[in-house]
Amino acid sequence: MGLRTFKKGGVHPDENKFSANAPIQSADIPKQVSIPLGQHIGAPANAIVQKGDTVKVGQLIAEPNGFVSANIHSSVSGTVNKIDTVIDASGFKRPAVIIDVEGDEWLENIDRSADIIADVKLSKEEIVEKIKSSGIVGLGGATFPSHIKLTPPPGKKAEVLLINGVECEPYLTADHRIMLEKGEETVIGVSILMKGAGVSKAYIGIENNKPDAIAHLKNICKKYKGIEVVPLKVQYPQGGEKQLIDAVIRREVPSGALPIEVGAVVQNVGTAFAVYEAVQKNKPLFERVVTVTGKKLEKPSNFLVRIGTSTQQLIDAAGGLPQDTGKVVSGGPMMGKALSMLDIPVTKGSSGVLIFSESESKRRKMEPCIRCGKCVGVCPMGLEPYLLANQTEQKMWEQLETDSVMDCIECGSCMYTCPADRPLLDFIRLGKGTVGKIMRSRN
């Protein structure tokens, strides 16, 4: 019997996991951090500190502004320099708390020992509240506030927890290293999430290009009831929620619906580790593991980084920009965003920094569509990308909505496979943004 994978579409780009054997190392604490207030899907948080305030590591500096929002904590100790705007990875100005670093003084109630605590003493409700207060969001890239996933709407019930250890984006290895170096803590985090979701079964999906992580977690899971490691075929974008659900439990999430519709709750392995630290160590989410890599980079690395640290600092720590650098991408090559400048702060959603050479970063000339249908064949959502892109060009917003443009997960498989080098994903993202605004104004 073959390895499991999702049924529709998918591609297999070169993996280029150059940093897979690079142990996680703590990045230097910067002299100043810029901590954005919008590090999650939903409304940006509201700052509760002001210029001149003294803060410690782990201190709450911004509170949620609405149901879909999340707490923000200081990643450093020092003095608030100002509340201002900074450029984010998308190139837009966003509100942020800028802190001048003075020492490294943590809140006294954070357990900084290396002791692993397996006994979970909090109740289901207390776990959800702890995750909420700790500002934990999905660390796989979507940054959806984690406590909301554990609080299903009336009439819906979670039946199974799925943990995404796929890390299907080429180049990225942060999750891989977490599974190898923090495996026990991550599995305890999974058991905490199970209790928070009210389920008795959890699956950890890992692609079989990480045999060491599969073997390591399988061995650990023998001690924890109801947690099973599921090896998966290497197939991008297996890390998408709906694709992972299809691959592991063979349930298909309906168009426009969330995983809870089929009884599933999906969380990332990095999120599971953050949940462990929050619940067992009283540590809010103020740092994360980030991969810094590239074919010509001197030292491809995995860094444990304080939120608000400059991307430039991480690149310098990995050997600096190669001479022929053409593009720096935040995230992976398939779904990441090219940075307009390097003084961009690391956020909760920063999974990687990828450096392309001039030759790698050049886009080829766009040619006319030849109606080959390759984009349709690889779309994991069963959409027609060439049609959606054309409708966006023609501003056919009603038809775009009818043809389910909002189901697009922006994986980039269509653009990757297009022989005419058409920027299909660029068009579809524009169409999604416009249709989303129309739908929100209507509702």
Q: How would you sum up this structure in a few lines?
A:
The protein is of the alpha/beta class and 443 residues long. It contains 14 helices and 17 strands. The strands form four sheets. It has a six-stranded mixed sheet. Strands 2-8-7-4 form a four-stranded antiparallel sheet, with no helix packed on it. Strands 11-10-9-12 form a four-stranded parallel sheet, sandwiched between helices.
Gyration radius from CA atoms, angstroms: 21 Å
Q: How much of the polypeptide forms β-strand, as a percent range?
A: 15-25%
Which sheet architecture does the biggest sheet show?
Answer: 6 strands, mixed
- Quick one: overall form? globular
CATH superfamily of the domain at 124-281: NADH-ubiquinone oxidoreductase 51kDa subunit
Distance between the termini: 47 Å
Tell me the helix content: 25-40%
Low-confidence stretches: none
The name CATH uses for the topology of the domain at 124-281 is Rossmann fold
- Mean model confidence by pLDDT: 96
Which architecture of the domain at 124-281 would the CATH scheme give at its second level?
Answer: 3-Layer(aba) Sandwich
Structural class: alpha/beta
**Going across the major beta sheet, what is the strand order?**
1-14-13-17-15-16
Total count of strands:
17
Oligomer: single chain
Number of helices: 14
CATH class of the domain at 124-281: Alpha Beta
